[in-house]
Structure to design on (381 residues):
């Protein structure tokens, strides 16, 4: 089925992003794996191309287009290259900027948004804690008011861009008596005394992503770094999670689709028992099922992207897109690996790396189980 979601401007951006992949990312693919991070030169080059500014108004160095479909096009391109770049760039340009644009003061916007747009400042968001997982309301990091500053203590884990981050949006408990209504957001900056970017975590997949722990030991954060009203941090996160989840869904489908298309070509070329493996009925039927799953899922996710572009995407529909696309992605990539046989288990083959990279998508941005819980509650259960 033809897709009707994008127009000529979106496709022009796709062409530009694909050129960036071939010119800047692909030649550094192995280097990024070895370094377990994306080189800062790559960040700056992506910023120079304008890839980080679609959620940032023009007066702060962005494009200010107000059309989420541009974000989705870039996510598709990055995910088609690899999941780690899509994750890192997505957190930086897709997840974090709306917090500052929507909640920040004029001084905060002028101070941080231009650097985010250019890639000079890498940003992360610190929600997840070692003991909390998907339960954001149970976080233990605290911020205690002390004059014109807050004293921040605690830790975060599994933070994408955490090792390189110059800025981190941190959720902390400012009033233990108010539960979810006692959480406030702060922007912590590299170099603040007591703030430490921890080690790069050794993950099953996505080695290019510098996922890290973050530690806060009596960090004095000026009140001018408080993001949004005191006590509204949890609500602010809940309001912006649909964008993170629809972005995750776009990533999941595009990542699996790119590997599936390569696998179809492999099935035409690889021979066993005197014929291409794709000619065997089981494999032919399997590939037919996989293509159908991807296209049907893509159609739903496209509708979610359009709805979000209009400000109409509900948290429940975003949850549906997130969990379903993650499940389909993992099912498709597992089948693609199987079709490659022993070669599919070799790290030098892209399908093996993609298979490992994809496993986390059923966990992050809210686990698939939590997504089903949200959907079930909406059903009145």
């Amino acid at each position: 089925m033809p897709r009707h979601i994008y127009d000529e401007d979106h496709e022009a951006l796709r062409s530009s992003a694909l050129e960036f992949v071939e010119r800047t990312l692909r030649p550094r693919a192995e280097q990024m794996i070895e370094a377990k991070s994306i080189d800062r030169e790559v960040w700056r080059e992506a910023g120079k191309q304008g890839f980080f500014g679609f959620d940032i108004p023009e007066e702060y160095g962005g494009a200010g287009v107000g059309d989420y479909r541009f974000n989705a096009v870039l996510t598709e391109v990055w995910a088609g290259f690899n999941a780690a770049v899509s994750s890192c760039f997505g957190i930086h340009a897709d997840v974090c900027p709306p917090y500052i644009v929507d909640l920040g003061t004029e001084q905060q916007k002028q101070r941080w948004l231009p650097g985010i747009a250019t890639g000079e400042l890498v940003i992360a968001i610190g929600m997840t804690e070692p003991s909390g997982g998907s339960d954001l309301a149970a976080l233990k990091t605290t911020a205690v008011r002390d004059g014109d500053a807050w004293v921040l203590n605690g830790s975060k884990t599994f933070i994408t861009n955490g090792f390189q981050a110059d800025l981190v949006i941190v959720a902390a408990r400012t009033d233990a008596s108010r539960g979810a209504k006692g959480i406030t957001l702060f922007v912590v900056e590299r170099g603040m005394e007591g703030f430490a970017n921890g080690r790069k975590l050794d993950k099953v997949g996505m080695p290019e992503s510098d996922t890290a722990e973050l530690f806060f030991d009596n960090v004095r954060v000026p009140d001018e770094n408080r993001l949004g009203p005191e006590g509204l941090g949890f609500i602010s996160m809940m309001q912006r999670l649909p964008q993170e989840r629809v972005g995750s869904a776009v990533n999941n489908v595009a990542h699996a689709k790119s590997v599936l298309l390569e696998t179809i070509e492999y099935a035409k070329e690889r021979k066993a028992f005197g014929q291409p493996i794709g000619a065997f009925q089981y494999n032919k039927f399997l590939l037919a099922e996989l293509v159908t799953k991807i296209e049907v899922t893509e159609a739903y996710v496209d509708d979610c992207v359009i709805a979000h572009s209009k400000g109409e995407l509900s948290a429940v529909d975003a949850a549906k897109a997130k969990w379903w696309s993650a499940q389909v992605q993992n099912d498709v990539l597992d089948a693609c690996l199987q079709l490659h046989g022993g070669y599919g288990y070799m790290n030098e083959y892209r399908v093996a790396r993609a298979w490992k990279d994809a496993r986390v998508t059923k966990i992050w941005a809210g686990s698939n189980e939590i997504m089903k819980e949200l959907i079930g509650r909406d059903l009145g259960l």
User: Anything to note?
Assistant: The CA atoms of residues 33 and 163 lie 15 Å apart. The mean pLDDT is 97.
